[in-house]
Amino acid sequence: MTRLILRIIALALAFAFVFPRIGGISFTGEFFPDALVYSTLFSVTAFLVNAAAYIATAAVSVATLGLALLVIWPLRLLGWWALAAYQLLLLAEFFPGKLHVDGWQPALLAGLVVMVVNALTTRFAEDFKRG
Predict the structure, then answer these.
(1) Rounded Cα–Cα distance for residues 95 and 67 (Å)
(2) What is the domain extent for residue 25?
(3) Among 1, 38, 82, 102, which residue's CB has the most CB atoms within a 10 Å radius?
């Protein structure tokens, strides 16, 4: 639960202050409540997109008797941050008045930012649990 709260706050900071500095992304809103709401929605879409990716991976793996995993898992390990770019584009489609993304290139850069935020919040939450 601590990791989720930290991640939502860190993503809200990214929405409000980091994403607008990336050329091609604009966010017109304040940190509270807009960025917090969008980071929460981003976390929900992240859960749904990742669940769909795991279900699709399982279905393809069963259909190919596991041979597809030789291709899917290396691609997923090297490019999983591209799912965050897709999630950002999806969020921008639903809320065009507040969030605008000009295509895949700025979305991929924002996906790298999300990857860093996720890594930092995971590490910080683990250190926080240890005491």
Answers:
(1) 39
(2) 2-48+80-130
(3) 38
Query: pTM for the full model?
Result: 0.81
The total number of structural domains that make up the chain = 1
Element (H, E) at 99: strand 99-101
3-state helix, strand, coil in the chain (%, to 5): 80, 5, 15
**Residue 56 domain-assigned (yes or no):** no
Inside any domain, residue 20: yes
Q: Would 97 be classed as within a structural domain?
A: yes
Q: What are 45-67's pLDDT values in tens digits?
A: 888 878 898 899 999 999 999 99
Residue 131, pLDDT score:
65
Q: Report the C-alpha gap between 5 and 35 in whole angstroms.
A: 14
